[in-house]
């Protein structure tokens, strides 16, 4: 029974009680058994004196036809189709259609249908279209008259305030029509709405802090170490971690996790190293250093350190920081980063009813912007770091600097293995080394301790994969990179920042002076258990395609307003689509494969992943199947980088499927050889002769880019194939 039906029943019962009460009052009053005042009857149920005892009849005893104010869909369905609609005047028919059109186009109706009736956005248009058609076929005269009485002058026009007659009519009209639509949905679409209701229930991510029972059972304390780079905030947090009996350090990168592992062990805290690709454990370890995705939420510790907390707002990996902040069972949680997410962490603390202490830090050494830009590459000095945003630009800058100066250049960019990046940083930091200049991408902004005197921005625009455009650096990115200059451990008294031209230097100065943009939302992704429950309600074709499954989940997911956003799942959806044909895999197995950290735009890595999955489905031992390239190849370094990524992928999968991926030791040996090969290749990028350098680098830069946004052949090859196909078809027709 709907609320409108219940209201009508209540009104009829109250009216009948009033009539009955009046009859009893008069009969007992005539006998002297009841007072004449009628004070015991409420004004709402008292019957006026002019109403005769035979309620519902006229003065001559004839029954009076009363207008019916409560209408139900079941009663409308009893009316023969189009029995009254054809009798309506054109004017009345137009008004009824206009009211139905207003109901269908109303944003409030769509929202109420979703929240109250569980009508999905995909189902709403067709359900409303069917309702309007059936409504016109089964409309009754009483209902039509009632709607005409409520008909506002223009239902699409907003009334003059809440108390206006126009608004009251529109509200009453909304209640009548939406009530009938609700009964129609409950009668004809119950199966679809129940399925969507369960899907919405299983994809409800509100109150996600209550998922972590161990953390909620503890009285935790949050300490926020807020400050810019080179302010000592992470150092202070690690000192507290060393003093604790047990603890965990959560780093954003493998390189930082390895550095924390070395630091803690050096200071006497026996520590394990846990990353996605490797595990170094000790039987007497009391601490652990891990990447943030690998933190164990089932192990209680005294102190936890969560580094680079501002990445909680990262569109790709932010969910890992959210999960760690909400779920780490530690008595003290030290979070380190800039103050852009301080308000967000405060809201989390209030929601979890936990104490938050804030400690502010300032830079140990000043950071200044040079008044003039760099004249040319001949003006580069020892301790300088040139920033670019592509690998080819890195090699071009290295060539220019080494040809115009007597300094060798170390190289750091994202595709290099962590060990190689550390080795290049050590070459640059060593005063006795010939490598006096560093050429790097924004990868230097996190995870490396560098003795940099001056940061030189060769460009201020960076390619954004989301928009497929080059965008100017944000204030946070510029400060993170520039903060590498003048570190506390370096021998320089201050840090300097410069650029290659006046326009870029002015932009850098503006970015450095700007306040950090406050981040208001934290990233979140559903755990596997929630995906599994949601998948139980979906069709087989959706379950087999995890890309479609994640998209369907994102559509129905309910997030807490003003607190979370759903992280991007582009790579997950791509791999899920590619693994659709493997129907023999369980959902959990397929889920572990699609969340593997790989770049789906790299063709070699995607093909290697598919080969591993094919062997895995056959339930046979999965071999590494990687051959290191020959050193004399022009694309030797590029091939080594791809081999390193494939071997890292194999090790990542071997931790999840140890019984199937059996060549872990072989993969580790090949990975070490691959790392040494990359280091040697980088050394060969600095031959004695400038001409040899130019020939070597130009050959590398001109090498074909092996991108795999598409596995289709090159355009020229496709055109050739089309022409050959046309010739074959033409030849067949002639024969």
From TrEMBL:
Pfam family name, one: Helicase_C
Cofactor field: Mg(2+); Mn(2+)
Residues of the Helicase C-terminal domain: 373-532
GO cellular component entries: mitochondrial degradosome; mitochondrial nucleoid
Entry keywords, A to Z: ATP-binding, Helicase, Hydrolase, Mitochondrion, Mitochondrion nucleoid, Nucleotide-binding, Transit peptide
Enzyme Commission designation: 3.6.4.13
SMART domains registered for this protein in UniProt: HELICc (SM00490)
UniProt biased composition (Basic residues): 723-735
Region (Disordered) location: 705-735
UniProt-listed GO biological process terms: mitochondrial RNA 3'-end processing
Any one Gene Ontology molecular-function term assigned to this protein's record: hydrolase activity
SUPFAM superfamilies according to UniProt: P-loop containing nucleoside triphosphate hydrolases
InterPro entries recorded: DEXQc_SUV3, Helicase_C-like, P-loop_NTPase, RNA-DNA_Helicase, SUV3_C, Suv3_C_1, Suv3_DEXQc
Main localization, broad class: mitochondrion
Catalysed reaction, written as an equation: ATP + H2O = ADP + phosphate + H(+)
Protein localization: Mitochondrion matrix, Mitochondrion nucleoid
Superkingdom field: Eukaryota
Subunit structure: Homodimer; in free form. Component of the mitochondrial degradosome (mtEXO) complex which is a heteropentamer containing 2 copies of SUPV3L1 and 3 copies of PNPT1.
Protein name (Swiss-Prot/TrEMBL): RNA helicase
Protein source organism: Chloropicon primus
């Amino acid at each position: 029974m709907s609320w409108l039906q219940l209201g009508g029943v209540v009104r009829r019962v109250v009216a009948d009680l009033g009539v009955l009460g009046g009859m009893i009052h008069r009969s007992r009053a005539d006998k002297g058994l009841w007072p004449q005042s009628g004070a015991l009857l409420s004004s709402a149920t008292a019957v006026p004196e002019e109403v005769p005892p035979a309620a519902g009849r006229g003065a001559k005893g004839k029954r009076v036809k009363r207008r019916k104010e409560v209408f139900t869909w079941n009663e409308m369905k009893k009316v023969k189709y189009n029995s009254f609609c054809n009798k309506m005047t054109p004017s009345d028919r137009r008004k009824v259609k206009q009211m139905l059109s207003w109901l269908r186009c109303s944003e409030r109706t769509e929202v109420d249908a979703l929240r109250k009736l569980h009508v999905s956005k995909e189902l709403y248009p067709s359900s409303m279209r069917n309702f309007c058609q059936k409504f016109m076929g089964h409309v009754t005269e009483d209902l039509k008259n009632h709607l005409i009485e409520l008909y506002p002058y223009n239902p699409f026009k907003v009334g003059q305030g809440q108390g206006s007659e126009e608004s009251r009519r529109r509200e009453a009209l909304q209640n009548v029509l939406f009530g009938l639509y609700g009964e129609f949905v409950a009668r004809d679409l119950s199966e679809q709405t129940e399925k969507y209701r369960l899907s919405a229930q299983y994809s409800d991510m509100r109150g996600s802090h209550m998922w972590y029972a161990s953390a909620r059972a503890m009285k935790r304390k949050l300490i926020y170490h807020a400050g810019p780079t080179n302010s000592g905030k992470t150092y202070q947090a690690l000192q507290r971690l060393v003093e604790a009996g047990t603890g965990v350090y959560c780093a954003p990168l493998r390189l930082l996790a390895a550095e924390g592992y070395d630091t803690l062990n050096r200071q006497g805290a026996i520590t394990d190293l846990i990353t996605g690709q490797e595990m170094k454990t000790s039987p007497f370890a009391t601490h652990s250093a891990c990447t943030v995705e690998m933190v164990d939420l089932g192990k209680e510790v005294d102190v936890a350190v969560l580094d680079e907390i501002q990445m909680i707002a990262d569109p790709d990996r932010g969910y890992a920081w959210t999960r760690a902040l909400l779920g780490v069972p530690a008595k003290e949680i030290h979070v380190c980063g800039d103050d852009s997410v301080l308000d967000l962490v405060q809201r989390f603390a209030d929601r979890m009813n936990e104490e938050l202490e804030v400690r502010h830090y300032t830079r140990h050494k000043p950071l200044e912007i040079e008044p003039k830009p760099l004249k040319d590459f001949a003006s580069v000095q020892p301790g300088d770091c040139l920033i670019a945003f592509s690998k080819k630009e890195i090699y071009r800058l290295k060539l220019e600097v080494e040809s115009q100066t007597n300094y060798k250049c170390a190289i750091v960019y994202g595709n290099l293995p962590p060990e190689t990046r550390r080795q290049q940083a050590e070459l640059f930091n060593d005063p006795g080394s010939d490598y006096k200049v560093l050429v790097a991408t924004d990868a230097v902004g996190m995870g490396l301790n560098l003795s940099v005197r001056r940061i030189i921005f060769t460009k201020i625009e960076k390619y954004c994969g989301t928009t497929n455009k080059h965008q100017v650096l944000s204030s946070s990115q510029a400060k993170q990179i520039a903060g590498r200059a003048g570190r506390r451990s370096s021998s320089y008294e201050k840090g300097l920042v410069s650029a290659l031209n006046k326009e870029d230097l002015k932009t850098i100065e503006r970015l450095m002076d700007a306040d950090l943009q406050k981040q208001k939302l934290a990233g979140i992704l559903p755990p596997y258990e929630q995906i599994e429950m949601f998948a139980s309600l979906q069709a087989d074709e959706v379950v087999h395609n995890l890309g479609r499954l994640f998209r369907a989940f994102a559509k129905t997911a309910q997030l807490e307003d003003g607190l979370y956003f759903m992280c991007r799942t582009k790579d997950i959806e791509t791999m899920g689509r590619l693994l659709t044909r493997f129907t023999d895999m369980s959902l959990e197995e397929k889920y572990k494969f699609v969340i593997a950290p790989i770049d789906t735009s790299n063709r070699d890595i995607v093909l290697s992943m598919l080969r591993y999955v094919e062997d895995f489905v056959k339930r046979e031992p999965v071999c590494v199947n990687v051959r290191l390239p020959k050193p004399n190849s022009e694309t030797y370094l590029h091939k080594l980088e791809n081999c390193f990524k494939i071997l890292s992928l194999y090790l990542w999968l071997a931790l999840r499927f140890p019984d199937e991926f059996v060549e872990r030791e072989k993969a580790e040996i090949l990975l070490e050889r691959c790392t040494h090969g990359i280091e040697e290749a980088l050394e060969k990028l600095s031959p004695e002769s400038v001409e040899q350098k130019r020939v070597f680098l130009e050959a590398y830069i001109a090498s074909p880019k092996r991108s795999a946004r598409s596995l289709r052949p090159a355009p020229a090859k496709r055109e050739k194939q089309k022409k050959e196909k046309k010739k074959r078809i033409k030849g067949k027709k002639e024969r």
